[in-house]
Write a structure and sequence with these properties.
single chain, 264 residues, mainly alpha, two-stranded antiparallel sheet, 4 strands, 65% helix, disordered N terminus
Length: 264
């Protein structure tokens, strides 16, 4: 290749031995020191077969990571729902508030990380669109899951059995999305309506969410239903400390796997 390694005089066997093709590899680019017994191979020109095999192994590794994340999320998510049910019974808050706040917050952390990464690490030309698309797309997909739940819930239509209290959370979700949509429609006309660098619509969304969650918390605590026919609590033998610990472990697994899958 137009490059002559430096070797001791008379060591022709050494020269010939290291200029022969190495099996399925082409001739190496070598960098010899002045000592004929010190060889440093810095680069090999790989054959197309080696490159194709490397790409296949990399793709297989990606799919294995994805499947591992999926298994972790499925297993830990099942445990998370069960421990959330135990907490709802033990605290008397009911499944509505636990699902609306506690479980929703845990399962939304990966989206939070992805959105923050998109808004801060990606360029200003693409970052805001990517972050908002992630959040709105997640809302749309989560609501689409209702169709799957209705298919799996074979007794009656799924939405016909939920409590009317969910109307409040549904209405609040509509209001928050309407504020976000109105801000997007207004565009630059609202650019001056800000507190520092934070837009007033974002502040309104945050305040409305916190107020709504607080009101729902008080309502669920004051209107918790007693067990039917004086039945014993389903999780009476469960220890609260153990439940909180197991819930934290399941939440950490779901959050970790969710963040990991977003970077695969």
């Amino acid at each position: 290749m137009g490059f002559e390694p430096t070797v001791a005089k008379g060591d022709t066997a050494f020269r010939e031995r290291h200029h022969e093709p190495l099996g399925h590899l082409s001739s190496p680019i070598v960098d010899y020191t002045t000592s004929p017994h010190y060889i440093s191979y810095t680069l090999y020109e790989l054959s197309p077969d080696i490159v194709s095999l490397s790409i296949l192994l990399a793709q297989t590794l990606v799919w294995l990571k994805f499947l591992a994340c999926l298994v972790i999320i499925l297993f830990a998510g099942t445990k998370l729902a069960r421990y959330g049910d135990v907490i709802a019974e033990k605290t008397g808050l009911g499944g509505i508030w636990i699902g609306l706040v506690l479980l929703a917050a845990v399962t939304s952390v990966p989206e939070l990380v992805t959105g923050v990464s998109s808004a801060t690490l990606v360029g200003p030309e693409v970052g805001p669109d990517l972050a908002l698309g992630t959040l709105l797309g997640s809302c749309m997909f989560n609501l689409t899951i209702l169709a799957l739940l209705d298919i799996l819930h074979r007794r009656t239509p799924f939405l016909s059995e939920v409590k009317l209290r969910h109307i409040a959370s549904a209405g609040m979700g509509i209001l928050l999305i309407a504020i976000a949509g109105g801000s997007i429609f207004a565009g630059e006309r609202l650019s001056g309506l800000a507190v520092g660098w934070v837009g007033v619509p974002s502040i309104i969304i945050l305040i409305l969410y916190l107020v709504a969650m607080w009101r729902m918390f008080r309502f669920e605590r004051n209107h918790s239903l007693p067990p039917l026919n004086n039945a014993a609590p389903q999780y009476e033998k469960e220890s609260m400390k153990a439940v909180y610990f197991k819930f934290a472990l399941a939440a950490a697994a779901v959050i970790g796997a969710g963040i990991w899958v977003s970077f695969i």
